[in-house]
């Protein structure tokens, strides 16, 4: 049988209403009484009814998490970070997939906003004006995108791309290609800006192959353009696309890294299992999920704003088997 609030009240020697206040609004109960109630609840194994508590506090005890593509192996680690931190804070997480569709993303925010206390938007694809409208109606945090005053958690793309370009330059590469991701992706725009600056500073030629789906097939589709461009190295928008590049380059008879070097971004688990293993810019995905929850909880506690609504996480180049000395002409 589930322990009731009346049983906790009898154990603690207080009224049921005092137990309710001690558990849902502890600031309204003196510390001695609150401690007595908490000890009684712990002894009896009492777990508050989330729905009933919501009626009292006006809070659901739920957080929403929207990602553009659950099949993309970048997101599971981030989701794990969100869920782990939310669980520590006694929140449940509602997860939804927008399928890379900005309209579906906005619809999901509107639906979930009625059922959660706050939302985390991962790599949102919507227009800035649309996201600003949504942010005005519900408490939300973006991950992997930044603009205006919307709270966000991002990765230091500039430093990560800079490390990748410096690595290629040290190996003697003079020509580098870029295989871009979705046209609506903020990360793609941020990374190409960093890449243009880094290659210019290093005196390297840059070839931009264009925008491709952020999937294995996108890398396959871009590979022939990369070969035709005559570059000796290529950086892909993400690891999954880089793996597609590796496969197609192998089919074309090119050796990696002897003929061309390949770098990905994300450090997904498969990147260390490929042949050759993939050099990649590692992103702290699980840490980003936890940081997003921390920021969201801070906003829920202080609706008037937090001191640092923007958080940037470091990136790190991991050198593996897919990069090597530039081939001689």
TrEMBL record:
<dbReference type="InterPro" id="IPR000843">
    <property type="entry name" value="HTH_LacI"/>
</dbReference>
<feature type="domain" description="HTH lacI-type">
    <location>
        <begin position="3"/>
        <end position="57"/>
    </location>
</feature>
<keyword id="KW-0804">Transcription</keyword>
<dbReference type="Pfam" id="PF00356">
    <property type="entry name" value="LacI"/>
</dbReference>
<dbReference type="InterPro" id="IPR010982">
    <property type="entry name" value="Lambda_DNA-bd_dom_sf"/>
</dbReference>
<dbReference type="InterPro" id="IPR028082">
    <property type="entry name" value="Peripla_BP_I"/>
</dbReference>
<dbReference type="Pfam" id="PF13377">
    <property type="entry name" value="Peripla_BP_3"/>
</dbReference>
<keyword id="KW-0238">DNA-binding</keyword>
<keyword id="KW-0805">Transcription regulation</keyword>
<protein>
    <submittedName>
        <fullName>LacI family transcriptional regulator</fullName>
    </submittedName>
</protein>
<dbReference type="InterPro" id="IPR046335">
    <property type="entry name" value="LacI/GalR-like_sensor"/>
</dbReference>
